[in-house]
Every structure is written in structure tokens, then in C-alpha cells.
Amino acid sequence: MSAQILSGKEVAAAVRAEAAERVAALRERGKSVGLATVLVGEDPASEVYVRSKHRAAEKAGMMSFDYHLPADATQSDVEAQVRVLNGDDRVDGMIVQMPLPAGLDGNRAVETIDPAKDADGLHPFNLGQLALERGHLRPATPSGIMRMFDHYGIDTAGKLAVIVGRSFLVGKPMALLLGAKGVDATVVQAHSRTRDLEDLTRNADILIAAIGRPQFITGKQIKPGAVVVDVGINRTEAGMVGDVDFHSAVAIAGAITPVPGGVGLMTVATLLANTVTAAELALAG
Asked: Which value, in Å, is the radius of gyration of the alpha carbons in the chain?
């Protein structure tokens, strides 16, 4: 058996096209849409991510604002820049690119963002709204995964979903989305210290790997026919790999996301969708 490849390319293109249509509709009503990023330091990977976000925003017809602070910027410098953007009417959505240089607190920086401009959906207010099954700005990566499920017709109701990873970026909000009414998966949140982890993963109908360890999940840990979502992006000497050993997993799984070309593309697309949503909400008052 060879798994169906759940490519993010087609789905992300659809999300970006929808965002562009919504941007055009807002423009006709006299409202432009702006996305701002705050990048601190000279991390090459972060610079690549930020450039890709700005290219995507501009292709969707958005204004794009790139603020780059030096590596020796202080916590106060970062938060001051965020506050300036909070008050900038041209900016509807913003992100602080992670990770920040050593010594800076990323959580504090995110908490400084106006929740109404939180394009990543990671402000505590928006995460709280998600827990209550309310709100509009939801974490970009988990929301992108849910859009992939919709696109490929993957049924979640009554399925056992095991999420390996417990970060506030992916793992925890992913669990909330999958367990929500109308989605109706039965969710188990696991991590690297979970006892008998392999027994859990081998029983998962939906397995989501978001642990940040290269090729941590192998084929022998996967239930035959399971849907496997690989959130990991790990740079190794052999190139970019995910948290799943793709070559052993693809022969066992029923469907699997590749790395690259999978979830990562959805993250950027959903970020744009959140920014347009923020602009629409701002216009509605």
C-alpha cells in the first residue's frame, strides 16, 4: 500500500485565491488590507519565512510592512515596535517572527499584540476564545491542517486523533480544534515523555506529529491506513525532513503530508486569511 499524498500546494493556492478575492472586495469598499512582520536579528531561516509571507501577501493584493530590528534589540524595543503597529491603521494583521534571539521573551512579545491584529492567532485572548469555541482569529498552522482535512474529505467524527506535541503553537490548539463540536474527534495529547507512546500512535486513526524531532515517528508506529500529518520542519545534513520518517511511513499510512510541500504552505496561506478576517472585522466595527 502507498499512501495518498496530502499536498499543501493545491489547498494553499485555493486559500490564497480566496484571500485575494476578499482583499479585492474590501478595496472596493475603500478598505485596504495590511500585514506587518517584526523580525529580530539575522536568523537565515526566519528571514526566508518572512520573505515568503510578504511575497504571498503582496500577491494577494495586501500592503506589506517589514520591520527588522537588530539582534541586540531589547525586550522593550520589540514591544515598543509592536505597540506602534497596534496603533497603525494601515496594519490589520501582524506577527512577531519566532524564534526571538536568546534573552528575549517571545510570549511577552505576542501578548503585546492587539488581539484584533493577531494574525497568528496566538495571543492568550484568541487562544481563550478558541477554547470556548468562539472567536475568529485561530492559530495558523492548526487551522491550515483543518482546511486540508476539509479539502481532501478526511472524516474526523468519532476518530481517534493522537497529537504528539503539546506546544501552544500547534499541539494544544490542534487538540481544541479536533475536539470541537462538529469536528468530533476523540483527542489524545501525547509528547516525548508519554509512556508507551508507540502503543498510542499505532491505534491512532489520525496521527499528528508536532514534536520538533527529525523523523521521530516511523512506519512501525503508525496504524495501517491512518492519516498522518507531519508538522515538523527540521534541517539536517540530508536536507529538510519532518518529524515523521516519510519513507517508512508512506508504505503504511492511508494518507500523509510531505515535508516540504505540506503543512508549511498552509501556515502562510492561513496567516493571510486571518489578516483579511481581521480587516473585515475592523471595517464592521
From this structure: 19
Strands 239-241 and 234-236: antiparallel
- CATH number belonging to domain 31-114: 3.40.50.10860
pLDDT tens-place string over residues 87-146: 999 999 999 999 999 999 999 999 999 999 999 999 999 999 999 999 999 999 999 999
CB contact at 8 A, 108 and 244: no
- pTM (2 d.p.): 0.94
92 is catalytic: no
Nine cell digits for residue 47: 528571514
9 is catalytic: no
Q: Do domains 31-114 and 140-264 have the same CATH topology?
A: yes
Pairwise CA distance, residues 72 & 81, whole Å: 14
Q: Residue 39 forms beta bridges with which residues?
A: 68
Q: Is 1 helix (H, G, I), strand (E, B) or coil?
A: coil
HSE of 269 in the Cβ direction (CA atoms, 13 Å)? 24
Catalytic choice (92, 118, 120, 243): 120
DSSP string, 264-275: HHHHHHHHHHHH
Residue 124 grid cell: 492568550
What are the φ/ψ torsions at residue 69 (nearest 5 degrees)? -100, 150
- Catalytic residue flag (residue 150): no
Instruction: Provide the phi-psi class of 153: left if phi over 0, else alpha when psi is between -120 and 50, else beta.
Output: left
CATH code assigned to 140-264: 3.40.50.720
Give me the catalytic one of 81, 97, 215, 221.
97
Half-sphere exposure of 214 (CA within 13 A, CB side): 8
Domain boundaries, the chain: 31-114, 140-264
Alpha helices in 60-105 (DSSP H): 75-86
φ, ψ at 210 (rounded to 5°): -145, 55
